[in-house]
Amino acid sequence: MTVIKPGKSQYQQIADLLQERIQDGTYAPGTLLPSEPELSRELDVSRVTVNKAVTLLRASGQVKVRRGAGTFVRSLPKLNRDAVARFAARNQGTGAGQVEISKLNLQSRTEYLHIGRVEAPAAVAEILGERDVLIRSRRLFANDEPTQLADSYYSWALTKDGPLTAAEVGKGGSYARLADLGVGPVRFSEDVNVRMPYDIERDRLEIEASAPIFEITHVAYAADDRPVSVTIHVMPGHLWTLRYTWDDPQESGQ
Amino acid sequence: MTVIKPGKSQYQQIADLLQERIQDGTYAPGTLLPSEPELSRELDVSRVTVNKAVTLLRASGQVKVRRGAGTFVRSLPKLNRDAVARFAARNQGTGAGQVEISKLNLQSRTEYLHIGRVEAPAAVAEILGERDVLIRSRRLFANDEPTQLADSYYSWALTKDGPLTAAEVGKGGSYARLADLGVGPVRFSEDVNVRMPYDIERDRLEIEASAPIFEITHVAYAADDRPVSVTIHVMPGHLWTLRYTWDDPQESGQ
DNA sequence: CAGTGGTCTAGACCACCAC
DNA sequence: TGGTGGTCTAGACCACTGC
Description:
2 copies of one chain form a homodimer. Helix content of chain A is about 30%, strand content about 35%. By secondary structure, the first copy, chain A, is α+β, with helices and mostly antiparallel strands. At the A-B interface, α4, β7 and β10 of A face α4, β7 and β10 of B.
C-alpha cells in the first residue's frame, strides 16, 4: 500500500480510508464493501491486514458482516432516548418503551422473551431487597432491527396476581399498574455503564463482539422511597444517544 | 491449545482464560501478564493468536500495555459521576469537576491544556448560537491517572473581561462566575454517546484505541432558557458509571 | 543487548452464503 | 460450487523498554 501518513500502521490507514469512502458515499449505506481479497489487491497488502482494518469499522458500528455474503455498510440514524420525557409521555401510550421509535416514523415491535417467576440476579436482588421476582424480559425492534434488550424485575409477592404477568399490561404501562397497587413510582434513577456485550447479547442484538453497549440500570422508587422495580436496558452504543435534563436543585440556596 | 469449548475460537477461549485468571487473582492488579511468547508456549498456539486474545482484554480495559515493558493488569475501581449531585455540591468547592475523585480518597489534579479565544466546533456553535467563544480545555487526573478530558465553551463577548479567562476561577466554579454576570445556570441537559476515541484522546487519556469512551455534551441554560455554556466531557468507558436521578414530572399530570 | 509487544505476510483450512 | 469472511500458523522485522 502506498503509505501516506508515516506515523500510523497500515491497517489504521486502511480503516481511515474505508471510513472516508463511507462518509463521502463511495460505499453507500446498505451496499457491500469490496471483498477483502479485492481490497487486498487494490491496496497491495495481505488480506489479514485488510481484515484487521475492517475489524475497527465493525467496533464502531459502521459496518456489519454477514458471513459468506460480505461486509455491508450500515446506515446509522441515531435513536434518541430522553429519559425524563419518555416517562412523562407514558400516559399517552402503552408505556415508555416505544416512545423513541414511533417518533421517528419507524415501525416498532416488542418481542417478549420471558415473563415469569425467577430468582433475581445478584445486582437486582440487592436493589430490590428480594430474590423472588417477576421478570419481564423483552427485545425491542425498530424496522425489524433489534434496538435493545430490556429486563424488568418486580417483587413476585406484589405482582403475581396482577396484570404484569401477562404480555399486554394496558394503558399507561407497567408503572400505571404499580400505581394501581398503591406503589406508583415517583422517583427514578439510572446508572449508565459501557461494556462489551456478552455472547447472548451479541446474538440477540445482532452486533459485533467488539461493539460496546450501554447498560442502563433503571430503578423506580415509590413515594416511601422503596424501590419497586428495576429494569436493565442493554442497547448497542452506536445506535443511541441518551439525554437527561434537570433543573438546578439549588432553588433554596446553599 | 487444548480446546474445551468447541463453539468458540481459540483466541476467545484464551481471552476467557486470561480473564478468569485476572478475576481469581492469579494475575493480580498492577502485575505483569506472562509475555506473549510465554503464553504462546504454555497454551501451544501462535503468538498472533495470543495477541488477538489480549486485544480483547484491552478493549474492555482490563489490561494495559506498555510497549517494550509488558502487559499490565489494571485495577478497576469505578468512578461514580452523579450528574445532579455534582452540581448541587458545587458551592462547597471550586467546581463540580473534582467532586467524584475526592470522595474516593484519590488525589485529584487538573491540568489546563488551553484557555483562550477560539472558533467553536460546529456542534458547540450550533448550541450556543455563536462561533466566537472562550474555551477552557482541561485534563483531570485521579492519582496521576487521566480520568477525563473536559472542554468548556462560553461566549467570548460575555466572558472576555472576567475571571473565566484565568485558570483559577474562584469559589463556586465557573457557574458561580456566570451567576455574577447575571446568567447563572438554572437548567441542565446532557447528551451521552459512546464511541471509539480519536488518536489525541487515546494519547491524552492513556487508553487503548479499541476502548470505548463516553462523550457527554453538557449544556447549561440560564433562566431565560438561553444556553450559556457547553462542556464536552470525554471519559474512558471502563472507568466510569454515570448516575442520573429525577422525580416524576407528572405531579400536575393527568 | 535481550526481551517485550506491534505489525505484516503468504499460505492454509474452515463455515457459511448465494447461485 | 465458487466467493465470502473467520481463524490460525511460522516467520519476520520493527520500536521501545530496562538493565
